[in-house]
From TrEMBL, chains A, B:
Residues annotated as domain ATP-grasp: 499-697
Protein name: Acetyl-CoA synthetase
InterPro entries the UniProt entry points to: ATP-grasp (IPR011761), ATP_grasp_subdomain_1 (IPR013815), CoA-bd (IPR003781), Ligase_CoA_dom (IPR043938), NAD(P)-bd_dom_sf (IPR036291), Succ_CoA_lig_flav_dom (IPR032875), Succinyl-CoA_synth-like (IPR016102)
PANTHER family, sorted: COA BINDING DOMAIN CONTAINING PROTEIN, PEPTIDYL-LYSINE N-ACETYLTRANSFERASE PATZ
Superkingdom as given in the UniProt entry: Bacteria
Stretches for region Disordered: 460-496
Family annotation (PROSITE patterns): ATP_GRASP (PS50975)
SUPFAM superfamilies cross-referenced by the UniProt entry: Glutathione synthetase ATP-binding domain-like, NAD(P)-binding Rossmann-fold domains, Succinyl-CoA synthetase domains
A single GO molecular function term of this UniProt record: metal ion binding
Phylogenetic lineage: Bacteria, Bacillati, Actinomycetota, Actinomycetes, Jiangellales
Alphabetic keyword roster: ATP-binding, Nucleotide-binding
Length: 702, 702
């Protein structure tokens, strides 16, 4: 999406004028609802109902045709009439139209053709179309309820305008989520539904939201995730982002395909990209809202070390379990001074190690939790606190909320609250927690997972572990990452050519050279110390060994025969140093295309690579920190560390190799595959034993 | 626990008389609360407050000492006085005492000693003690609030007596969970807190609850799980059981140890045992309650095939994702007749494949969902339905609830509801759903996970996949599984002895025999076809190869030398058929002790076994179905199926082997280890190449 268009999308929540094309005064008709809602929620701009028959809608005079420029048009006419309406919008200068009508790609082949026509027409007419098949957008600060969602017909809709921007591909599920956010007191700035995403995606809407000074955090629900560059730009804004990507399973992807023609991306790539870019991944609607609440904390974790302070031992154990499970947080080790101070505070039947359990004694000693918390938040080894309590009631809860809020503000550290108790025990608690800026959850595990998401989205800001290509937080939106150096595709993509290129990038490959005839092969073997491997170099021959194209253990005596055998395959003949080692590990380092861009994967190698399924991936380009994390994520990392008395292998060299491959391939035309397999990791260094490059095959237009 | 004691525990929720020892009239004192609560909630039995100073408590005269038999004593005196009180209880014939006092094992070494004294005294006095360090128990049908939990001080406690029994090791967290259950309208029969579990565990309490005719389903929270036999007995009752086991992670286990001295069990064993026994595993409090709601459905799934019917495409995708993730449910394939009927019902822009999306058109056509559901529930290929809707309001929701409830009842199939919308949209919905017997959840994934738990706990009843040793559902409680044949421990536990034993149980081992001298070795090799392996048989020598105790590829010519070399290690000499195969897979089949009993593990073998971490476990004894599942759970199952053009290997023979090992080891004294490693899986048959047995080492008393 062009940045001009991103700018245009502001009108989805802050338009000065809105036309509702297809408006009607008929009670309960969908075409009446946006007008009714805009009036009810105090929208301050101009509303222009359009109905060929004229008349009035909710007391407003209806135009028979749109004849004036408005900031935003809501299009609610039958599918067959939409293209004409969009053309008309273009003629009078409407920059953005929300196409609410159904009957496009979701309705089969004819609908798909209609959707293509809609996109083409909109482009020609200069209209940015949102949808089709969507239910509109809402600005909670402006009262701009440009939607027919029945949510806004509810009798007592809580009004909690806030600073969280929300974009959703699904309308019904999205506004259901909005209703739950309002119920939980999560302050929303806006909600945008993108429907079929013919031109504007969830990520586009989120980019526009991120540009708003009044938006501090972003939540999104999407079924289609195919724009790695947009993800990077979003991450680069420094505003915390949580995404729920539906269609994560095979079965789900199938449903996604039939629902919106969504392009499935593999779950591993999504996971890797989110981790790499500092995007929190929600696995369910609950968790998306849990993250929204986490983003409302005024304090950021400066590290992953979490202290748990609880009035219930059980809650402490559940919190500790969850911390371990995240893989991104750690249970803080308290300073001996902290423990010693806690020993004077916590009853003998409590616990002063982390998790700290002040016990139900808090019922009779209301300041107990405050005293313990005050000590814990001041520990320099504690980056964040999760505090848990259960069935406390009324005043007891309010006292705790005050104490917790004050401790968090004084220390400037986030304190997340797990209150495992019904609302009826302390009806004022939810509101009090919200006012105190304390994210609150019904279970310790949910508090911990939300904190893990907050930490992941804060890491770049905290200055640790951010991916190199992502600019620091606070960089202006829509500014792309700094342009890459941009290497051309490899000129020579045969094995010797690739190995030469790798060597240019500081990667160790076996010594060797092409041999021109049997005698030259004898000479080459001698140059390599009398012990070599002889390999065929034949364009397109990937499985050399099976074809008899590799002869190992060649000496000067056998070199002539080996040359003759391998040369029979019709290509050049490579003579290489024979790399042998008592201790080594075979890995694969490869690059392949994905819907989010080129992805580098490192995996435990050998013939069982796919069965072992011990792999870690990242989007390219990646940083050395990314490469370090990738290697650590392998189960096989234990083998690198020196397994069962074997010497440790050169993990640093493997990390160097991964980083070098990332740098080397920057700028190569997208869609290629590169396979370094096997790569031998040795006690000192690595050797790339084989390398293959497959350029992108041109794709027919979709 | 003896069955007599289990019987005694009924008084935890249904006692005719209760003494409160340490009762006081002082306002807000803990010692006043049980008396106050018993009166407030209409407990119909006799209440005997006991206070050395006499006087009254809540208007009831207090005895200065307990002089009469009561069904249940609540002990609320300081820790140091508890032992005397328990002695007194024994003297007057009190069968069960809840020790609420703190200051026992959770308070360090002195407390631990005091707890041991308490247990010994109670045993001598014939009193069954619950706790110490607990907050009591509640019978919701009897109004027996024998607890000081502040929950029962809440102003407007919802009263939802029901048929779900709940036992919890943690008091505060447990009664917090109870409050959430009441809020959600989950009908509880009772709640029992077991605290330090000096004598009565969560599982003991659950067994007693399972014996109640008025209890239909069981929920438990535990930090200590060390009684595999009790788990089996619970599973055998046929009443659905969900357990939340805290302390699942390493960090969590550490916290568990410091909190209650809990014995950690490894997460994999717990997972395996639950799956094997048909126990639903909750991973969080939310999920435990979700399962409680699932158990309230009057209809049981008869299979794993789920249809999704939704008004929102997004919800359908999330449901499909979740079905895939459970690994225990499948997305049903609808009958062509069903799809064809749906084509006439669902709008063109909806979807008639599973997930079925009737779209938001349900807003204008209120009977649309009913018509679609009616067709789907009647499909014989559908065992259960998850139906999803979002922001529908008021009457719309009530119409849907009626339609869904009627469809479920007519077809006799469970329909779980995911309503992703705030309560304020349809305030009557929760109650209406509950009355219609429809389990309801805020997100599609939670509905699916709860349904998966319902299916797991119903499988035994459905007659598929139940573990052989578990009697059919409905068997009387506390009756143990049928006694096992009971083999003695192996007489000869050296390699030839174990292999002979395996052969007796139909397991294929290499042909072979002991050789008595070099000449005999030559003869033996000849008998085996002239190609053999020669192995040392030395007691205690496990790593034979490293010690030079294995010589492979031995022929008649080399047999004499091989014998001499191996015999040098000082033991007997085994000559065995050399098993070679072009295609084969090495696996490990082993048995080891766990806190839940002996556990059999099958794992991908070779030197990397621990790094690959590709293993599946089950409690012994196990059924052939269990063994089949175990093999299917391995990632390496792909290798058995014939990987990359290799012939398939004999999976059935591997399953036979696992089943045979289970049968062979029934009755062996607990605590042993048995290692069959490697086991070679061949295209036809398996061969156990090596076998070792390590008997239990006697443990010092804990």
């Amino acid at each position: 999406m062009r940045s001009q268009e991103t700018h245009d999308l502001r009108v989805l929540w802050d338009a000065r004028s809105i036309a509702v094309i297809g408006a009607t005064d008929r009670p309960r008709a969908l075409g009446r609802l946006p007008v009714e809602f805009l009036l009810r929620y105090g929208y301050g701009g101009r509303i222009v109902p359009v109905n060929p028959k004229g008349g009035t809608v909710c007391g407003l005079p209806a135009a028979t045709e749109l004849t004036e420029r408005v900031d935003l048009a809501l299009v609610m006419v039958p599918a067959a009439a939409v293209v004409d309406v969009v053309r008309r919008c273009g003629r009078v200068g409407v920059p953005v139209a929300i196409i609410m009508s159904s009957g496009f790609v979701e309705a089969g082949d004819d609908g798909a053709a209609l959707q293509r026509e809609l996109v083409d027409t909109a482009r020609e007419a200069g209209v940015c179309v949102v949808g089709p098949n969507c239910i509109g957008s809402v600005g909670f600060r402006t009262g701009q309820t440009a939607t027919f969602s029945p949510l806004f017909g509810a009798a007592d809709l809580p009004r909690v305008p806030g600073r969280v921007g929300f974009a959703t591909q699904s309308g019904a599920l999205g506004f259901g989520t909005v209703s739950l956010a309002l119920e939980r007191g999560i302050g929303l700035h806006s909600a945008v539904n993108t429907g079929n995403e013919a031109a504007v995606s969830t990520l586009d809407a989120l980019e526009a939201l991120a540009a708003e000074p009044e938006v501090d955090a972003l939540l999104g629900y999407t079924e289609t995730l195919a724009d790695g560059a947009a993800l990077r730009r979003l991450a680069a804004t420094g505003k915390p982002l949580a995404l729920l990507k539906a269609g994560s399973s095979d079965a789900g992807s199938k449903a996604a395909a039939s629902h919106t023609g969504a392009l499935a991306t593999s779950d591993r790539v999504v996971d890797a990209a989110f981790r790499q870019l500092g995007i929190a991944r929600a696995r369910d609607i609950d968790e998306l809202l849990d993250l929204g609440a986490a983003f409302s904390s005024p304090h950021l974790p400066r590290g992953p070390r979490v202290a748990v302070v609880t009035t219930s031992g059980g809650s402490g154990i559940l919190a500790a379990d969850a911390i371990e499970t995240t893989g991104e947080l750690t249970l803080a080790t308290l300073d001996p001074a902290t423990t010693s101070a806690l020993n004077a505070i916590v009853p003998a039947f409590g616990a002063t190690a982390n998790p700290v359990d002040v016990t139900a004694a808090v019922m009779s000693d209301r300041e107990l939790l405050r005293r313990a918390l005050d000590v814990v938040v001041d520990d320099d080894g504690v980056d964040a606190v999760v505090t848990c309590f259960c069935v406390l009631t009324g005043d007891q809860v309010m006292d705790i909320v005050t104490a917790v809020g004050e401790a968090a503000d004084r220390a400037g550290k986030p304190v997340f609250v797990a209150r495992t108790g019904a609302d009826f025990l302390a009806p004022e608690a939810t509101e009090a927690l919200r006012k105190a800026g304390l994210p609150a959850y019904p279970t310790p595990a949910r508090a911990v997972r939300a904190l893990a998401g907050r930490w992941r989205t804060a890491r770049a800001t905290a200055g640790t572990g951010a991916s190199a290509p992502v600019p620091a937080a606070g960089t202006a939106l829509v500014e792309a990452p700094p342009p890459s150096p941009g290497n051309p595709a490899p000129q020579r993509s045969d094995e010797p050519g690739l190995k030469a290129l790798l060597a240019d990038h500081g990667v160790a490959v076996p010594a060797g050279r092409l041999a021109h005839d049997p005698d030259d092969a004898v000479a080459a073997v001698a140059e390599l110390g009398g012990h070599a491997v002889v390999k065929a170099v034949v364009p397109g021959l990937i499985h050399k060994s099976e074809a008899g194209g590799v002869v190992g253990g060649v000496t000067a005596e056998t070199a002539r025969n080996a040359y003759t055998k391998v040369a029979r395959l019709g290509g050049a003949v490579l003579v290489e140093e024979m790399v042998t080692a008592e201790h080594s590990l075979e890995v694969l380092v490869g690059v392949a295309a994905s819907p989010l861009g080129q992805v580098l994967t490192v995996a435990l190698g050998g013939v069982l690579t796919e069965v072992l399924d011990d792999a870690s991936s990242r989007l390219l380009p990646l940083s050395r920190e990314d490469a370090t994390e990738m290697v650590a994520e392998l189960r096989g990392a234990r083998l690198l560390a020196g397994y069962r008395g074997a010497p440790p292998l050169d993990t640093a060299a493997l990390i160097d190799l991964i980083t070098a491959v990332s740098e080397m391939t920057i700028g190569w035309p997208d869609g290629f595959e590169l396979d370094l397999n096997p790569v031998l990791v040795l006690p000192r260094g690595v050797r790339v034993l084989d390398a293959a490059y497959i350029p992108a095959t041109p794709q027919p237009d979709r």
